[in-house]
Amino acid sequence: MKTFFAARMERCIGCQSCSLACARLVHKRLSWYTAGIRIGSSGGISTGFEARVCLACDPPPCAAACPTGSLTPRKSDGGVKQDRTLCIRCGKCVKACPIGAIVQDELDNPYMCLHCGRCVPYCPHDCLELAEKGQANFVQEVAE
Amino acid sequence: MIRPHFRVVIVNLSTRKTHVENIPGRETWIGGSGLAALLFEKYGDPAAPWTDPAQPLIFAIGTLTGYFPLMSKTICSFLSPYHGQYTESHAGGRSALALRFADMDALVVIGRAERPCVLSVGHKHMEIKDAPFLWGKDVFTTGKMVRNMLPGSGMRSILRIGPAGETGCSYACINVDTYRHFGRMGSGAVMGAKNLKAIAIQGDASFPLPEGNKDYPKVFKEIYELLTETSMMSKYHDLGTAGNVAALNELKSLPWRNLQATTDPGIDGISGERFAKDMLLRNTACAGCPVGCIHIGYLREKFMADNRYLYRQVAYDYEPIFSLGSMLGMTDGFAVLGLMDAVEREGLDCMSGGVALAWATEALEKGHITLEETLTPLKFGEAAGYKAAIGHLGRGTNEFYRRLAQGTMKAARHYNGEDYACVLGQEMAGYATGETFFVSESLSFRHSHLDSSAYSADQKPQDKDAPKIVAGFVKDEASRIVLTSMAGCLFARGVYSTERMQQALSSLGYDDVAANLDNAGATIQRLRWRLRMRSGYAPMQAKIPKRYTEISTWKGPIDAEYMETLRQTYAARLMELGREEEAAGNV
Questions:
Q1: CA distances from residue B62 to B210, B258, B288 in whole angstroms, order as listed
Q2: Is the domain of B385 the same as that of B437?
Q3: Which of the four pLDDT bands, split at 50, 70 and 90, describes residue B587?
Q4: What tens digit of pLDDT does each residue of B457-468 get?
Q5: Do A31 and B286 touch (CB under 8 A)?
Q6: H or E element at residue B55
Q7: Which residues have CB under 8 Å from B150's CB, separation 6+?
Q8: Mean pLDDT within A73-90
Q9: Considering its fold, how many domains does chain A have in total?
Q10: Residue B251 above 80 pLDDT?
């Protein structure tokens, strides 16, 4: 299955268009926080940017921790599917994620990357990629 | 929409209390410039001095902020330490989106803290932390310490001042997220007077999108594609504004050595092309803007023997290259980056700081001041003296620097150097393009090159028809006010036509705001001028220094007589715009 990668973050300019797109298109929210991908500096804006996003653990510990089956492993290649109707907003997925890629809003709804790739076209520097596992980050475009 | 009215958070540093006000009138005041003016009228006292603790420091965003790209500016309004009158300064960074996601249309800071402090606000918290240990710290150190003191990395904006703001320099800036600034007119000194070293705005709220509405995604997509897939914005991320440096030098319109010349063969060392080729490290962006116009230069400095180096990252643009480059006779881009870094650390406005030191250099040459005043030799083209002087200016080391920090013209009057003070309302912006720009910047609301398109008009042949030019200034200002009320980046003015702004507003349910845009621009324009006049502005008395009559541009020598006619015509029009009785019929 295709998986989402923040493959070339050294190119990131910190515009947060990806986070805003994920919130807007996937989660139907206006936010730079309740999104599957969130951008922060690596320690101040002079240090460049990092993406806080699902790394497609296989098997995913968040799905293992989910008591209701709201989160289940994707068919292959790691990451999860989410059925929001089953979520009881317990926050166990947030605690289970080893890299802090899942956040909860003020009503405790969890937000994580679902590897749909809808944010990819919104990155002006082509930092993001939806690819088969092991295939991302290999293509380096050469500037004119 | 989030809500029809404005939600405004007022923080009182004296009582350490906050309250929220719901203020109607979005269809008239839009947000940004309009909301800031409305709030100043409510909370400010134009008759009292800017140092009065009760005076507000206002940060306002617009109706489209967060919803649409490049709606990424915050409008800061205050009584200016530079002239004691009502003014605005604009900045981007993360400030606008942080305010949106902190669920505020505006943040108003009133009062004065008993001791130096930092303010941390978010959609569900407010905290004032004492921070005397930050007083005296430079802008970068302050930013790093505040990062560690407060929560919210990645979703916050950190506004802070340097020593210049603490010492009351009338052109101290507020640094926003390291690389952006509320640069001009001294907002940094307003924070300093309030004992407020930094403000961290945490944007941790999330809002539902318009339900069942197909217009919003459609309008968003159209605007986003125009911004990213057409060539409309390419000049801003390619060479950036620095691309104008060589062009204006070619046009004999780039001020050199305190405007003793308007072109110089040394241009190759400081052109935008040179910066891109030798110094550009990377680009960065304001939150919500995929253009990424912020150009970060790389400066490597040997600080010790045995190849001990450090590196600095310095944001450059056209204006700092002019003010700390050509205006100071500098022809080495790396040295210019070094001066920009020094100015950033002190928290000075780069334009005013550079132009002030250019005046001081000529004053020293002419013998109007001596080394006793400057403490360090100042010579065009020599960076070391300027670097030391920037430190003196920020920290107010002696009486001379404290005077110069109150404005170049104030110092020039004292030392008899008014004729060659490059002041057009404030220290000039980098456009020696001709009569139209000189009059526009001298008299316009912010004394900014962004108040009108005067510097572009000068670059084309035009009639010397003063009433027509002035009508153009006024119309241009009203249309820019609509965008700065929205509050979008002026670089996007080609994309955000009135029609497109109306579509965007309607897609969010703000049909009433959309229907009233043109009227709102004119209404806000009049309120801003009334506030300016109430706080003491006398446009008829604004003179243009002799230096501006002595130069030549691509059009030849300046026509001083026409410039004076234009000045008087514009001043008279501004008196009409700011008249109180006219107000009564319009609001």
A1: 17, 38, 13
A2: no
A3: very low
A4: 898 888 899 999
A5: no
A6: none
A7: B118, B120, B129, B156, B200, B202
A8: 96
A9: 1
A10: yes
Question: What CATH number does the domain containing A52 carry?
Answer: 3.30.70.20
CATH of the domain at B351: 1.10.569.10
Say yes or no for a CB contact (<8 Å) between B284 and A14.
yes
Is residue B521 within 8 A of residue B479, CB to CB? The reply is yes
Which of B 254-293 lie inside 8 A of A, CB atoms? 282-292
Say what the ipTM of the complex is.
0.90
Min Cα–Cα distance to chain A from B204, Å: 7
Residue B219: pLDDT over 50: yes
Q: Measuring CA to CA, which residue among B177, B445, B429, B419 is closest to residue B322?
A: B429
Q: Has residue B525 been placed in a domain?
A: yes
Q: Is the Cβ of B44 closer than 8 Å to some Cβ of chain A?
A: no
B382 and B518 share one domain? no
A109 touches chain B (CB under 8 A): no
Residue to test with chain B: of A20, A27, A37, A119, most B Cβ within 10 A: A20
Residues of A in contact with B151 (CB under 8 A): none
Residue B412 lies in a domain: no
Chain A contact for B147, CB < 8 A? yes
CB contact under 8 A, B203 and A33: yes
Angle (CA) B278-B284-B289 rounded to 5° is 140
Asked if residue A16 belongs to a domain, the reply is yes
Nearest to A34 among B179, B206, B313 (CB): B206
Q: Is residue A112 part of a domain?
A: yes
Nearest CA in chain A to B204: A33
Q: Is the pLDDT of residue B583 over 70?
A: no
Same domain, B383 and B433: no
Q: Do A30 and B220 touch (CB under 8 A)?
A: no
Q: Give the distance from residue A140's alpha carbon to the nearest chain B alpha carbon, in angstroms.
A: 17
Query: Is A121 an 8 Å CB contact of chain B?
Result: no
Closest Cα in chain A to B208: A29
Residue B206: its chain A contacts at CB < 8 A? 23, 29-31, 33-34, 105-106
Q: How many Cβ atoms from other residues are within 10 Å of residue A31's Cβ?
A: 28
B495 and B360 within one domain = no
Q: Which of B365, B391, B417 is the last residue of a domain?
A: B391
Same domain, B237 and B281: yes
User: Inter-chain contact B101–A40, Cβ cutoff 8 Å?
Assistant: no
Contact assignment for A124 to B228 by CB distance below 8 Å? yes
Q: Which of the 8 DSSP states describes residue B292?
A: -
B585: confidence class by pLDDT, cuts 50, 70, 90: low
Q: How many domains does the structure of chain B reveal? A: 3
Of B182, B202, B222, the residue that ends a domain is B202
Per-residue model confidence as pLDDT tens digits over B526-554: 999 999 999 999 999 999 999 999 999 98
CB of A47 less than 8 A from some CB of B? no
The answer, for B212 touching chain A at a CB cutoff of 8 Å, is no
Residue A138 belongs to some domain of the structure:
no
CATH number for the domain that contains residue B522: 1.10.599.10
Task: Answer whether residue A139 is part of any domain.
Answer: no
Percentage of residues in chain B with pLDDT exceeding 70? 99
CB neighbourhood size of B20 (10 A)? 10
> B145 CA to chain A: closest CA distance, Å?
10
What's the pTM value of the predicted model, to 2 decimals?
0.96
Residue B96 touches partner A, C-beta closer than 8 Å: no
Q: Based on the domain organization, do B171 and B109 belong to the same domain? A: yes
Distances (CA, A) of B5 to B30, B57, B58, B72, B266: 10, 21, 17, 20, 54
The three-class DSSP label of residue A85 is helix
Q: Which residue has the higher pLDDT, B549 or B153?
A: B549
Which residues in B397-422 are b (16+ Cβ under 10 Å) and which e?
Answer: beebbbbbbbbbbebbebbebbebbb
B222 occurs within a structural domain: no
Residue range of the domain that includes B146: 6-202
Contact A45 B178 (CB under 8 A): yes
Range of the domain at A53: 2-132
